[in-house]
Amino acid sequence: MTHSTIRLTMAQALAKFLARQMTVIDGETLPLFGGVFAIFGHGNVAGFGEALYQVRDELPTYRAHNEQGMAHAAIAFAKASFRRRMMAATSSIGPGATNMVTAAALAHVNRLPLLLLPGDVFANRGPDPVLQQVEDFGDGTVSANDAFRPVSRYFDRITRPEQIIPALRRAMQVLTDPAECGPVTLALCQDVQAEAFDYPESFFEKKIWIPRRPAPDVGELHEALAALKQSRKPVIIAGGGVLYSEAAETLGAFAEKHGIPVMETNAGKSSLPHDHPLNMGSVGVTGSSASNLLAEQADLVLAVGSRLQDFTTGSWALFKAKDVKIVGLNTQAFDAGKHRALPLVADAKVGLEHLEQHLGGWKTSDAWVAAAKAAKADWLRAAKAVTDPTNAPLPSDAQVIGAVHRARGSGATLVCASGGLPGELHKLWPAGAPGSYHMEYGYSTMGYEIAGGLGVKLAKPDADVVVMLGDGSYMMMNSEIATSVMLGAKLTIVVLDNRGFGCINRLQMATGGANFNNLLKDAKHEVLPQIDFAAHAAAMGAVARKAGSIAELESALHDAANDDRTSVIVIDTDPLISTDAGGHWWDVAVPEVSARPQVNAARKQYEEALKGRRL
Q: What gap in Å lies between CA 83 and CA 67, rounded to an integer?
């Protein structure tokens, strides 16, 4: 029996395959890949570039200005799509490829799908060493793309055209699996991209990918149920897995029926609306006073879709009850069993449904619910106090957050990533619908914000996307402002200029260090830079404004809502003020000995705090 074949180059087969992958969302069949971000070079322009041109109507190609930025935008698209859709990113060999390694690490840490397609050296090795080739004196198989191996869930190098068949099949399994999900790197040798092969036509049949929803093991379910029913002060930690499982409504109903307070990680924030009576807000190092008070007392923690990183657990010193138990409801067994947790390996939505089926009328005491609501009321008063405007010469980050929310409301989709803002936003931003709070804090990547905002806008074209970032992040990566203008993907970008790395400066001071090399004034300099961020943004085509006060910022935000393209609003802020209310200790090692008495004092405090850590 003969099978029908079609003769294509490897690159053409790759592009054709990607265009035929589909998904179904709310009953509508959509392309799984929203497009390919591409910056062409000698490692991909002749092969993959030609192939993308052939499918440009089915699989759009987006030109970016920075390889790391375009990969960040692709990641944000997937995150904003709750991992139901994704994008690919392709670069030349050499610096174009290694520029994407940071993005690969970000996707790896955050369990987000990203298909990276960097060009690679010649498989035939005829022109060795080709331009930009990294040579290893002892290993002829090494290229720069080997840097992707530790930050890829699946890595492959395509050295023959037929290898793309099993490689793509494996890639799709990883990209769409709720437990394995993460970045896939297929390094494309540039000569092989142009080589032809008779591919089976069946390889290009349309394939619909529906998320797998694993149910819990019976034994693990019974153990988790027993622990829940024995608890008197349980709490729920909602992680990003709640959103990716589209389990927000299920979580809310579960919490209400059984009287369990809910607290949110940065990835899980917006799982419940901020005004839900059982939503205690942020938890951990950047937690609300309400969440952390309850977490300290909790005898059971139901962690739903969270990998329980140190900011969530207060470096594992937050949970203070002697016999506290953790139930880890997670699709990934690695996360479900952390810190002696009782694992409940399952999809978040399905897992909650199975717990619900067996809990019956069990619920916590009225006193526990009342304590939670009282703690939340106290926190809301504290949050309002720090977000309201004052007559201070320079506003705090919290006051800027208050202004942005008053002007744009919880209906906006808020994007941020690094510095001091994630902590303030985690505590203080009143999130609305699921996905309206888009924070990249797993890898805390400076420079993600603007590119991430672009990716969110591509995923949610009708959304009011507001990006907040500091001057440090802006300086690291701002070029996708121009891309957003070019694509008509309107963003509102708020730049908080505290003239340096204010967050790390505060951490430096808190650990006894001298003010050194963080704020511009404390760095080695002959002349302090006077950076006009508004003029810079305007030069890239954005509408730019400089606000001189909180009142001017609110006015500018209202005006920006009516702009026809991306707008950038700059406001000077105080680098030293952060919100004291809420929060928790975070393990940052302090030197055991120092010539500075401030460091020695901080070390004593550190050693005392370590005694409360749960190992």
A: 21
Residue 248's alpha-carbon distances to 82, 239, 251, 434, in angstroms, are 12, 11, 5, 7
Token representation of residue 30: 């959509």
Structural domains in the chain, CATH included, are 5-208 (3.40.50.970), 218-378 (3.40.50.1220), 388-572 (3.40.50.970)
Handedness of CA 463, 464, 470, 473 (dihedral sign): positive
Residue 475: C-alpha distances to residues 96, 501, 528, 547, 568 (Å): 20, 11, 15, 19, 14
Mark the ranges of the chain whose per-residue pLDDT is less than 70: 1
The Cα–Cα gap between 106 and 110 comes to 6
Contact 95, 476 (CB under 8 A): no
Which residues are CB-neighbours of 44 under 8 A, at least 6 positions away? Answer: 38, 90, 91, 92, 117, 118, 119, 188, 190, 193
Residue with tokens 């993308």: 52
Q: Which amino acid is at 605?
A: Q
Q: Specify the pLDDT at position 526.
A: 95
Distances, alpha carbon 132 to alpha carbons 11, 91, 120, 143, in Å: 21, 13, 10, 10
DSSP at 581: S
Q: What value does the CA radius of gyration of the chain take, rounded to a whole number of Å?
A: 25
- Whether the CB-CB separation of 272 and 291 falls below 8 Å is answered with no
**What is the bridge-based pairing of β-strands 196-200 and 5-9?**
antiparallel
Q: Are 494 and 505 in contact (CB under 8 A)?
A: no
CA 74 to chain centre: 11
Task: Give the sign of the dihedral formed by CA 578, CA 584, CA 585, CA 588.
Answer: negative
pLDDT score of 391:
85
CB of 582 closer than 8 Å to CB of 428? no
Question: Between the CA of residue 276 and those of 263, 430, 431, what are the distances in Å?
Answer: 11, 11, 11
Name which of 246, 235, 165, 152 is nearest 200 in CA terms.
165
**Token couple for 316:** 């594992």
| In contact, 508 and 518? CB cutoff 8 Å | yes
Residue burial 474-508, b: 16+ Cβ < 10 Å; e: rest? bebbbbbbbbbbbbebbbbbbbbbbbbbbbbbbeb
Question: Please, which residues have CB within 8 angstroms of residue 228's CB and are 6 or more apart in sequence?
Answer: 234, 300, 302, 327, 355, 359, 362
Nearest to 440 by CA among 171, 211, 108, 154: 108
Backbone phi and psi for residue 305, each to the nearest 5 degrees, phi listed first = 65, 30
Torsion, Cα 532 535 536 537, to 10 degrees, reads: 120
The tokens describing 129, both together, are: 């060493």
Would you tell me how many other CB atoms lie within 10 Å of the CB of residue 167? 20
Q: How many beta carbons lie within 10 A of that of residue 428, not counting itself?
A: 26
The secondary structure of 210-249, three-state, reads CCCCCCCCHHHHHHHHHHHHHCCCEEEEECHHHHHCCCHH
> Quick one: pLDDT at residue 1?
59
- Tell me if 10 sits within 8 A of 71, measured CB to CB: no
Backbone angles phi, psi at 338, to 5 degrees: -65, 140
Residues for the chain: how many in total? 615
